[in-house]
């Protein structure tokens, strides 16, 4: 199954080609102003493009070797939330630099005692005249050391049920009172951080939506996060695929060990199932149908699949696999050893495997909600 896109003479396709002729190596700003970074966003930030138009733009940019700005949290999660509930002044100020990749964003959600049960967060935002004063700690904040802004959720009212006292704020990362402390993960990479807030003043103008109504906006962000983290490729859309591993094995003369062969075949089949699920979701969008349960099932399957592909690559290296840098058959591409060490994060970040299953059980299969003792209400609303 594959999607057949409109042909070479489609005016939308020709429009992208004309742009690329004028800008053979476009900057992030040029791509953003042309509406090609998030084409489905409304003008002036996007083109209000339908799914087919988006696919055409993707195809033309890929063919020309043009990459969009790398600002995953900004473009994928913060931007859509500001678009959804931001003031005209916030949209004017933040959206274009974010699309252009000129201002990088991070997500200040998780805390030491609030991950899956995010609504239990303890970071306070106390109103003081025209400011909120922020006090507390966030953790696992990807890119906080690189970001100019963060989307922050903090508790403005501790007296009401936990989901009702949260406010959504835009936080400049150079604000006085913010300390960013690195966490180095087992790949040796410094990608996430602890972030401490010691009486950080944020203007009320930085609030997105109404005071105490931030949980519904956090759910908009988390919904975009799940979709964004369920693309093709084994490391949240960024790593090699099972088909790449099979190809590597082929190039090296094949594999005769029966159990490894069986696992390779299994990984290839799972990779194809995921590819088809992705195509089915895209096809539904192109036909104007809602995405259906495939979208949420995909992240749950893709994360476990990513771990298996990376473990299999390590096992294919035999005894050499015990060396940190080893990749299958002594191939030196470090993506495999990095992927092996990073892959346990796949079933944690963006909502754990167990939480994904809860969402599928409750939303897609219609099973009863689990009881939530903390909330004092019969139903849990964990990280969703
Ligand atoms: C690579 C990476 C990048 C990240 N980047 C960011 C970021 O930029 N910003 C940010 O805010 N956060 C970020 N996170 C944090 C991430 O969102 C949390 O780690 C995740 O939500 C899980 O929370 P936790 O770590 O507190 O685990 P916990 O919620 O404490 O979970 C511990 C275990 O209990 C299980 N569990 C919890 N509740 C249930 C339940 N109801 N039913 C069944 N099992 C349950 C979980 O599945 C898990 O196995 C990142 C994490 C990773 C790995």
Would you spell out the secondary-structure blueprint of this structure?
Blueprint: H1 11-22, H2 28-33, H3 51-63, H4 72-85, H5 88-99, E1 105-108, E2 124-128, E3 131-138, E4 149-155, E5 166-172, E6 178-184, E7 190-203, E8 207-208, H6 214-228, H7 242-251, H8 258-286, H9 294-316, H10 335-342, H11 353-364
Parallel strand pairs: 1-4
Antiparallel strand pairs: 2-3, 3-7, 4-5, 5-8, 6-7
Helix pairs in contact: 1-3, 4-5, 4-6, 7-8, 8-9, 9-10, 9-11
Q: Which short descriptors sum up this protein?
A:
384 residues; Butyryl-CoA Dehydrogenase, subunit A, domain 3; four-stranded antiparallel beta sheet; 3 domains; globular; alpha+beta; disordered C terminus; binds flavin-adenine dinucleotide; Butyryl-CoA Dehydrogenase, subunit A, domain 2
- Helix/strand structural class: alpha+beta
- Secondary-structure element order, as H and E? HHHHHEEEEEEEEHHHHHH
User: What is the 3D shape?
Assistant: globular
- Mean pLDDT over the full residue set: 89
Q: What's the alpha carbon Rg, rounded to whole Å?
A: 22 Å
CATH 2nd-level architecture of the largest domain = Beta Barrel
Beta-strand share of residues: 5-15%
Distance between the termini: 32 Å
Helix percent band:
40-55%
Largest sheet: 4 strands, mixed
Question: What is the tally of helical segments?
Answer: 11
- What assembly state would you assign to the polypeptide chains in this entry? single chain
